[in-house]
Each structure stands twice: as structure tokens, then as C-alpha cells.
Amino acid sequence: YIYAAACEIDESTEDAILNEKNSKYYFGVKAFPEAVDIDSDSLFTTYLAFIKDNPQFFWIGHHYSYSYIENPSMQINGIAFGIDSTASDYADGDYRMQIKEEIFTEVETVLEGAEDYGNDYTREWYIHNYLCEKTVYDLAGDHAHDISGLIVDGKAVCESYAKCFQLFMNALDIDVMYITGTSNGGGHAWNQVGLV
Hints:
Layout: H1 2-7, H2 11-19, E1 26-37, H3 40-53, E2 60-70, E3 74-83, H4 93-114, H5 120-134, E4 136-137, H6 147-153, E5 155-156, H7 158-171, E6 175-183, E7 186-194
Parallel strand pairs: 4-5
Antiparallel strand pairs: 1-3, 2-3, 6-7
Helix pairs in contact: 2-4, 4-5, 4-6, 5-7, 6-7
């Protein structure tokens, strides 16, 4: 239920969140119509699933808060997502809106090019090549870990690449998962794609 409610953020609400000048740390307090019984571990799992499934919310950090009521059990009645603290410029609502516009202008252009390809495999390959050609691996980039690092700056790490790839596959309605784990002893991110 919480995952579905978080995914119901419509464009006008998203734009209001993006432009919110006073939300330097948290935004999008989502009050639920009714309280939900859920433990904190399940809430955390739900939060991670939402973040991993929705790379378009590039300014969301790795923290959240929630409100609850205590009757016999803890019942969640609202959630707020944290703004990415590693990219302090995301605290500015105007900046978030500007970056969103730059990202989705580029995404629309790339997706128009994908229309020339006849099936999911060739569209996936086209997106893969676009991302590889556009990207310079750069750990030091301000936005190296979110989609704006690759799409706007052209500087990114595996996390940004995987999130961008997922964004494009979602737009093309191709099954994709964002996966995290380790490789050669360090953190790594990649995608799993379902092609038929």
C-alpha cells in the first residue's frame, strides 16, 4: 500500500515538490487516507523498492522520515523523502526544476531516435550505445550517482548509468530492474532486462 501510494505522485504534485523553496531537507509528506500496519524493516524495504524503481526522482536521497500512531501496533500514516545531501544544489527548488527539464528534454530526444528501431532488443541496444557514448566515468562529479550526472553533465559512475538505463527502459515499456551489489570488492550497480 505504501509503495503504491508513493507511486501515485502525479505531475502537478511532483512539480510542486520540485519547486518547493522551503524543503531543503525533506519533501512530499504523503498523508495516507488510513494508517497502515507495517514494521520499520518492511517500510525500509518499501522505500528502497520505490527509489530503485523510480530514477526520475533523482533528487531523493537515501533517507526518509515517517509519521505514525501507536495503537496496539505501529501504524504509518505519512512518509517524507529526504533530498540528496550529497548534492547540496538540490536544496534549491528552482534548480531541481531546471535539471528536471534538461533531463526530460534530452530523454524525449533520445526516445525519438529509438522509434527508428523495430523491436525491444534493438531499442535496448540503441539506448545502451547512447549512454556509453555520452558517459565519462567520473567519481568526483557532483551528480555522479544520479541521472542528471550522466544526462546533463555526461559524467557518471555505474549507479548513474544503471538508473539512466532504467529510466529509458521504463519509458520504452521494456522490463528492467535496477540491481546493486559488489564487484571486485566495491559497490556496483547494473540492470537486468527482460527481452523476449
